[in-house]
Structures are given as C-alpha cells and as structure tokens.
Design brief:
This protein has about 80 residues and is an all-alpha fold. The protein is built from four helices and no strands. The protein folds into two domains: about 1-40, no CATH class; about 40-78, no CATH class. The radius of gyration is 23 Å and the shape is elongated.
Length: about 80
C-alpha cells in the first residue's frame, strides 16, 4: 500500500517530468476545484461567521485560556 508521502513524491515527479499542457491544465483544474469546494460556505454559515467577526470587533469574546480555566473550576464543583 502506498503511503501519503510516496503518492506525493510520485505525483510531484510525474508533474515535473510532464510536458503535456493538457494534462497539466487538467491537474490545475482539479486542484482549483478541490480548493473551491473546501471553502464554499452556505449562506447561513457565511452569516454566522460575519456575525462572529462583528462580535469579536466589539470585544464580545472570551480568551481560550479563560474558558478552559472556567471549565476546570466548574468541573471541580461536580
């Protein structure tokens, strides 16, 4: 079975050796479309992210360390 590193090395080597413009363009399209799918958000997700950004700008957030500390204190009481 191929490991991720072996597959990457094989692909890199084949890409470097290729002079086939159609093949390279096809690979570029694959990479571009996979990146777009990775970052495509629904309108609801986009709205939640935007609302969160506004809250952060307005100082309405808690530091991660503070939340962890608070949770540890809460758990001690249980």
């Amino acid at each position: 079975m191929n490991t991720v590193e072996q597959i990457k090395r094989n692909l890199i080597s084949r890409i470097e050796d290729s002079e086939d413009l159609n093949f390279l363009n096809a690979l570029q399209t694959i990479f571009d479309s996979s990146e777009q799918a990775l970052y495509k958000l629904s309108s609801d997700q986009g709205e939640v992210i935007e609302n969160s950004r506004v809250e952060i700008e307005n100082g309405k957030f808690h530091k991660n360390e503070d939340v962890i500390s608070e949770m540890k204190e809460w758990l001690k009481k249980k």
